[in-house]
Automatic annotation (TrEMBL):
<feature type="domain" description="RNA 2-O ribose methyltransferase substrate binding">
    <location>
        <begin position="16"/>
        <end position="91"/>
    </location>
</feature>
<dbReference type="InterPro" id="IPR029028">
    <property type="entry name" value="Alpha/beta_knot_MTases"/>
</dbReference>
<dbReference type="InterPro" id="IPR029064">
    <property type="entry name" value="Ribosomal_eL30-like_sf"/>
</dbReference>
<keyword id="KW-0489">Methyltransferase</keyword>
<dbReference type="InterPro" id="IPR004441">
    <property type="entry name" value="rRNA_MeTrfase_TrmH"/>
</dbReference>
<dbReference type="InterPro" id="IPR013123">
    <property type="entry name" value="SpoU_subst-bd"/>
</dbReference>
<dbReference type="InterPro" id="IPR001537">
    <property type="entry name" value="SpoU_MeTrfase"/>
</dbReference>
<dbReference type="GO" id="GO:0006396">
    <property type="term" value="P:RNA processing"/>
</dbReference>
<protein>
    <submittedName>
        <fullName>Putative TrmH family tRNA/rRNA methyltransferase</fullName>
        <ecNumber>2.1.1.-</ecNumber>
    </submittedName>
</protein>
<comment type="similarity">
    <text>Belongs to the class IV-like SAM-binding methyltransferase superfamily. RNA methyltransferase TrmH family.</text>
</comment>
<dbReference type="GO" id="GO:0008173">
    <property type="term" value="F:RNA methyltransferase activity"/>
</dbReference>
<keyword id="KW-0808">Transferase</keyword>
<dbReference type="Pfam" id="PF08032">
    <property type="entry name" value="SpoU_sub_bind"/>
</dbReference>
<dbReference type="GO" id="GO:0032259">
    <property type="term" value="P:methylation"/>
</dbReference>
<dbReference type="GO" id="GO:0003723">
    <property type="term" value="F:RNA binding"/>
</dbReference>
<dbReference type="Pfam" id="PF00588">
    <property type="entry name" value="SpoU_methylase"/>
</dbReference>
<dbReference type="InterPro" id="IPR029026">
    <property type="entry name" value="tRNA_m1G_MTases_N"/>
</dbReference>
Length: 253
């Protein structure tokens, strides 16, 4: 073999399920699945049936080019369809609130509004576990899920952290507020975080890496919290901002 010869990696990643029968069985068996990718324009009967079952179970489905499927499947035979399995079962929002109650503590929740980088999600889960957060809430779409990359980035914390997936973050915030949870959104032009008191039932909302929290989600927040910026750029990495606010809340609590 020549020194500079490129070796193609055909090893399938552990969170990828490739092929019609494997994906069909994963959906049928209720295995936790983050999303399904299907080849654009694929109309075969078997795939149509799989997608119908997936949509019944609220599994996100996205059409992509076959080259994308070739890449994510690591060279495995995908037959036009690939699923991404979760490394751990998801919890529910009720599970999170019940866990807080069982500990005799006011709910301490982190809500992620379309955080898409799996390394950020893993880092947030790791810090949340250390800071005493009862659970994390993420949306079903346009968000990193509990992949093996996230599990690795969490350094094992994924095993101890309850993560719930919801259809609509804004609606979920309304439901939390009805239960007495105060919602703090991390964004620009808000109250200095050091002047906020997170000692009661609270949810800290962290937005997308590029866009921040969405307009509708911002409107649902009781308080907008900002971190002071002394440099030339005006934002922090999502996991860093989340970590600062979680530890401020832990100190207050």
């Amino acid at each position: 073999m020549m020194k500079n010869e490129k070796i193609e990696n055909t090893e399938q990643k552990p969170d990828v399920i490739a092929g019609r029968n494997p994906v069909s069985e994963a959906v049928r068996s209720n295995r936790p699945i983050d999303k399904i990718l299907v080849a654009r324009g694929e109309k075969s009967g078997a795939i149509v049936g799989i997608l119908a079952k997936a949509r019944d179970k609220k599994i996100p489905v996205k059409e992509v080019d076959r080259t994308k499927l070739d890449y994510v499947s690591g060279g495995a035979t995908h037959q036009g369809i690939v699923a991404f399995a979760a490394a751990k079962d998801y919890s529910t929002v009720e599970d999170i609130l019940e866990y807080a109650e069982s500990r005799g503590e006011a709910p301490f929740v982190v809500v992620l509004d379309e955080v898409e980088d799996p390394h950020n999600l893993g880092a947030i889960i790791r810090t949340a576990e250390c800071a005493g957060v009862h659970g994390i809430i993420i949306p079903k779409r346009r968000s990193a899920g509990l992949s093996y990359t996230v599990a690795k980035a969490s350094a094992g914390a994924i095993e101890y952290m309850r993560v719930a997936r919801v259809t609509n973050i804004a609606v979920t915030l309304d439901e939390l507020k009805e239960k007495g949870v105060w919602v703090y959104g991390a964004d620009m032009d808000g109250t200095d975080y050091d002047k906020c008191d997170f000692s009661g039932a609270c949810a800290i909302v962290i937005g997308n890496e590029g866009k921040g929290i969405s307009r509708l989600v911002r409107e649902k927040c009781d308080v907008i919290v900002s971190l002071p910026m002394k440099g030339q750029i005006n934002s922090l990495n999502a996991s860093v901002a989340a970590g600062i606010l979680m530890y401020k809340a832990m100190k207050n609590r």
